[in-house]
Design goal:
The complex is a heterodimer of chains A (about 375) and B (about 260). By secondary structure, chain A is α+β, with helices and mostly antiparallel strands. Chain A contains 13 helices and 16 strands. Helix content of chain B is about 40%, strand content about 10%. Chain B has a five-stranded parallel beta sheet with strand order 2-1-3-4-5.
C-alpha cells in the first residue's frame, strides 16, 4: 500500500539519526527505542543508535517468535515485539488512589504517575492506529482518565514505515499499515542507505529542522513507496471488511466457538499483547494495620474467571463464551463504540498465543463456513 | 474490637517452607502481633497446639494416621481455617508417592520400615476437613496470606487468585519463553501469585502454584509435543509439585495412558 499521508520527506544518513537522538536526550527526553532483549524486540531507554537491533529480523508465526540476524545495517527491518505503546500509556499495574484513615475521617488522595517527556522511536502504523483507539477510550470528552492522559501527553512519537511484513501481519486488510498514516510526530522510512524523514505534527517539526538533510531524490521516494507496497503484498493473512465482521453477531451459535474451547487455554496472552484491549480491574491493597490502602488498577482480560463475574456467578464460564466475547466485541461491538473495528492487524494475538490460535482463520471459518457438529 | 483475634499456624507433613515464607515477611510480621495474638507458630516460637483460635493457617499434607486425628482437632479448635501452600492445598511434592508402590519404596529406603506409621497416600487438608480458604504456592506467597488475614480482620470474605501466570508475565513485561524459545512453560495453566519468579529469569514455569480454575490441558500438551517433548516428560510437568490437583492429576494420567 502506498503512503497515504501528504509526506514531503527529506533524506538523512543513517548516522544523522544519532543527531536527532542526541538532541532529544539533551532536551531532557527519555528516549525509548527498540532493543533485542530476551529473544524479542523490547522498548528500553537508549541514547545511542548502536543499541538498536541492527540487521535483526523477526520470524513470527502462530505461537512462535524468533529474532534472526541478517547481513545488513537496517535498524528497523523487524515488525514488533510483544508490546510498544500500550504499557506506556495504560500502565499494566498502577496505584490510582490512596486512602488513609485520619482523625477527621477517611482521606482519599489521587496518585498520579511521575512522568517526563518521552520519545518513542520506531513505532509502526498498526500501533499508532491502536493508540488512536486507546485515546478514544481513555480520553473521552466526558470522562478522561487522568493517569492515561498524563503519560500520553508526554509522548513524542517517531514512526517508521514497515518495509516488510511478518507472517502474522495483516494490517493491509484492516487499513492500518504498513505505511505510516497519521498519529505520529516524526516519520521515518528506512532505505538501504539512510532514512527519509518528515514531520507530521507541529510538535515534531523543530526536531528535524537542523538535521543535516538533503531533498529526497525521485529514486529514494520510489524506494520508500515500493517498500511499503512490498510489505503489503507480502501479507498472506487478512480480516474481512468491517461490514462483514458485523455478521459475527449472526454466528453466535456457530460450532466453531465450541471447537475453539477445545484449543484455547484461556490464558489471556492475546488480550495482554493486543494493543487495543483496554480491560482492567481494581483491587484494594490494604496495609496490614488496616488504616491505609492503595487502590491498584491492573490489566485484566475477558479470558479471566472474574471478568464476567456478577455477584456469585460467572456470565461466561466456558472458554467458548470467553473467546466469542473477545472476538465479537473487538471486531463487531467496537464498531458501534469507536466507529471502527478494534483490530489493527498487528497479528500479536497470533504470534504470542502459546498454542498458536489464528484469529484471522477463526473469523474466516465462522463467517464463511456453515456450522457443523463438533 | 474488644479482644485481639487468636491465630495459630499448624504444621503437618511439609518442609516448613511456608512457615519460613511467613517469617520472611519483614516489617508486616512485626505489626501482626498488634492485631492478632499469635498463640501457636512453632517455627516462630509460640507453642500451644491445642488452643482455640479464630484463624488457623495450616501448612503441610496429611500423610499419617496421627495427622488425620490432629487435623480434625485443629478444625474443631478453629473458627476459620486456611490451608497454605502446595502440601496443604493439594498434597504437595510428597503426593508423588501416591503413584508408586509405597511399601516397596519404604522397604528400599528404611532399614526398619515397620517403625513407620504412614498412610498409603499424602493428601490435601480439604480431603479431611472443611477448609475455608486455600492459598497455593511452594512456598506460599506470604503477601497473599497477609492479605487474607487483613480481609478477615476487616470483615471481608477473602478471595483466591484466579488469573493465569501469563497475565502476570505480561503485566511485568516478561517475554514468553514458550513462544520465543520453545520452552515447555506451564504458565498458561498455572495460577498467578509467584510474581513470575522463574519466567522473569528466562525459565519455563513448572507450576509450583498449581492449576488455574479452568485448565485446558490437551492443547497445551499437544503444543509441548510439537516442541519435541515426549509424553513421559510432559507427564512430569503435570505430575510434579501439585500432581494431585485434580486438573493436573487427570492431565498426567491422560498423558501416561497415551504413552502406553
Amino acid at each position: 500500500m502506498p503512503a497515504r499521508d501528504n509526506r514531503r520527506p527529506a533524506y538523512i544518513s543513517r548516522s544523522s539519526l544519532q543527531t536527532l537522538l542526541d538532541r532529544l536526550v539533551s532536551a531532557g527526553y527519555a528516549c525509548l527505542g527498540p532493543t533485542a532483549k530476551d529473544g524479542a524486540i523490547q522498548y528500553q531507554p537508549i541514547n545511542n543508535l548502536n543499541q538498536l537491533p541492527r540487521g535483526l529480523r523477526n520470524d513470527q508465526e502462530p505461537g512462535h517468535y524468533r529474532l534472526r540476524q541478517a547481513d545488513d545495517e537496517r535498524l528497523f527491518a523487524w515488525n514488533h515485539g510483544p508490546q510498544v505503546l500500550k504499557p506506556l500509556c495504560f500502565a499494566p499495574q498502577e496505584v490510582v488512589w490512596q486512602e488513609r484513615q485520619t482523625e477527621s475521617g477517611m482521606s482519599v488522595k489521587q496518585s498520579m504517575p511521575a512522568t517526563k517527556p518521552t520519545a518513542v522511536i520506531g513505532v509502526r502504523a498498526c500501533d499508532l492506529a491502536a493508540l488512536k483507539i486507546q485515546d478514544q477510550h481513555f480520553m473521552r470528552k466526558d470522562s478522561t482518565d487522568p493517569h492515561y492522559q498524563a503519560r500520553r501527553d508526554q509522548l513524542l512519537l517517531i514512526g517508521v514505515d514497515c518495509a516488510e511484513s511478518a507472517q502474522t501481519c495483516f494490517c493491509a486488510s484492516t487499513g492500518d499499515g504498513p505505511a505510516l498514516d497519521g498519529g505520529f510526530d516524526i516519520g521515518l522510512a528506512e532505505l538501504a542507505d539512510g532514512f527519509l524523514i518528515w514531520t507530521a505534527s507541529a510538535r515534531g517539526t523543530p526536531w528535524i529542522e537542523e538535521l543535516d538533510q538533503q531533498p529526497a531524490t525521485d529514486d529514494q521516494l520510489a524506494e520508500m513507496l515500493q517498500a511499503t507496497e512490498n510489505a503489503a503484498a507480502g501479507q498472506s493473512r487478512h480480516l474481512p471488511n468491517e461490514k462483514k465482521l458485523t455478521q459475527l453477531y449472526q454466528r453466535l451459535g456457530h460450532s466453531r466457538w465450541l471447537d475453539l474451547s477445545k484449543r484455547c487455554l484461556s490464558c489471556g496472552n492475546c488480550t495482554s499483547v493486543c494493543p487495543t484491549c483496554f480491560c482492567y480491574s481494581y483491587e484494594h491493597h490494604t496495609a496490614i494495620t488496616g488504616d491505609s490502602a492503595e487502590v491498584v488498577r491492573s490489566w485484566d482480560s475477558c479470558f479471566s474467571a472474574t471478568h464476567s463475574e456478577m455477584g456469585s456467578f460467572q456470565v461466561r464460564s466456558g472458554i467458548d463464551q470467553r473467546y466469542r466475547q473477545w472476538a465479537t466485541h473487538k471486531l463487531a461491538g467496537w464498531q458501534e463504540q469507536f466507529g471502527r473495528s478494534g483490530c489493527v492487524g498487528c497479528g500479536r494475538c497470533i504470534s504470542w498465543c502459546p498454542v498458536g490460535i489464528d484469529l484471522t482463520e477463526e473469523v474466516q471459518v465462522i463467517l464463511n463456513e456453515g456450522s457443523r457438529d463438533v | 474490637m474488644t479482644r485481639k483475634p487468636k491465630l495459630a499456624v499448624h504444621k503437618f507433613s511439609s518442609c516448613d517452607g511456608c512457615q519460613l515464607a511467613l517469617l520472611n515477611l519483614g516489617e508486616p510480621l512485626l505489626l501482626l502481633p498488634e492485631l492478632v495474638d499469635i498463640v501457636h507458630f512453632a517455627e516462630a516460637g509460640p507453642l500451644d497446639p491445642d488452643a482455640q483460635v479464630d484463624v488457623s493457617l495450616v501448612e503441610g499434607s496429611i500423610s499419617t494416621p496421627h495427622d488425620v486425628d490432629r487435623i480434625k482437632q485443629v478444625r474443631e479448635n478453629s473458627g476459620y481455617l486456611i490451608s497454605i501452600g502446595a502440601c496443604a492445598t493439594v498434597g504437595g511434592l510428597q503426593a508423588l508417592a501416591n503413584f508408586t508402590d509405597r511399601d516397596a519404596w519404604m522397604g528400599q529406603i528404611y532399614s526398619n520400615p515397620e517403625h513407620i506409621d504412614a498412610l498409603q497416600s499424602s493428601s490435601a487438608i480439604a480431603d479431611h476437613v472443611k477448609v475455608d480458604l486455600e492459598i497455593p504456592g511452594c512456598p506460599v506467597n506470604s503477601g497473599q496470606v497477609l492479605k487474607a488475614l487483613r480481609d478477615l480482620l476487616s470483615g471481608i470474605v477473602p478471595r483466591s487468585e484466579s488469573q493465569s501466570l501469563c497475565m502476570d508475565c505480561k503485566r511485568c513485561g516478561v517475554v514468553c519463553t514458550l513462544v520465543t524459545k520453545g520452552e515447555p512453560c506451564m504458565g498458561p495453566v498455572t495460577i498467578a501469585g509467584c510474581g513470575s519468579l522463574c519466567t522473569s529469569l528466562g525459565r519455563a514455569c513448572y507450576s509450583c502454584y498449581g492449576p488455574t480454575p479452568l485448565v485446558n490441558d490437551q492443547p497445551l500438551t499437544a503444543r509441548f509435543s510439537q516442541l519435541g517433548m515426549d509424553e513421559a516428560a510432559a507427564t512430569r510437568r503435570f505430575h510434579f509439585i501439585t500432581s494431585h490437583a485434580p486438573a493436573f492429576k487427570s492431565a498426567g494420567e491422560r498423558l501416561k495412558a497415551e504413552e502406553e
